[in-house]
Amino acid sequence: MSKAIEIPAGETSKIRVFAINRPVPDMQTLLKSAPVPDVARELLADPHLNTAGAEVFPMADLAGVGLAAYLSDGYAVTDEALSPDRAKLDALEGYVLLVFSDSFAGQPHRLEPGSDVTLIGTYPEFRPGAATGSLTADSALPYTGVPGVVPATSSRNGVGSMVVLTIAAALLLLALWWFLT
Q1: Is 181 within the bounds of a domain?
Q2: Would residue 158 count as lying in a domain?
Q3: What's the total number of domains in the chain?
Q4: Per-residue pLDDT tens over the stretch 124-143
Q5: Neighbours of 13 (CB within 10 A)
Q6: Which residues, at least 6 apart from 128, have a Cβ–Cβ distance to it below 8 Å?
Q7: Which band of pLDDT confidence, cut at 50, 70 and 90, is reported for residue 1?
C-alpha cells in the first residue's frame, strides 16, 4: 500500500501527478467502460472524492513533448518546481493521473491510494497575484477632462441617408418590374 497523502485545509493551485501502475491494455479497457472521474476515484481508492477535473491519459499522447513541458505550458508550473523531477516526469510510461486541489474543495483530506498509483510529485500552478497598487497617473483621476468643452456634433441631418435609401428602393422596384415582365 502507498503512503498516505495529507491534503491541508485551504489548499489551492496544486497538481498531484500519479503514475498508474496498471498495464496499458487494462487502462484502455477501463477508460472505455467508465468516465475519467470514476476511474480516478477507483485508482485513488476514494469513492467520495470530487474528481470531475482529474485527468487520466497515456504518456504516448505526450510523445515529443513530455510531461514536464505539458505541466509547464498547460498549467504554468514553474521550471524551479519541475526541475528536481523533470527526468522522472519525462521517463514515465503507461498512464498518468493528474489530480487538482479543487478535488478537495479547500477541506483537509487524507488520501490512502493503493498499489494502483504512485505519487510522483505535487506541483504548484502559477497564479499571478492581483494588482494591488493604485493608479497614479493624472489621467486616471476623476474629472480630469477639459471643463466646459462639449464635443462637436455632426451637422448631418439624415438627408443624405434618405437619398441613398430612395435610390436603392427605386432600383429594387425597377429590377422587380423587369423580372416580372
Answers
A1: no
A2: no
A3: 1
A4: 987 766 666 666 777 666 66
A5: 15
A6: none
A7: very low
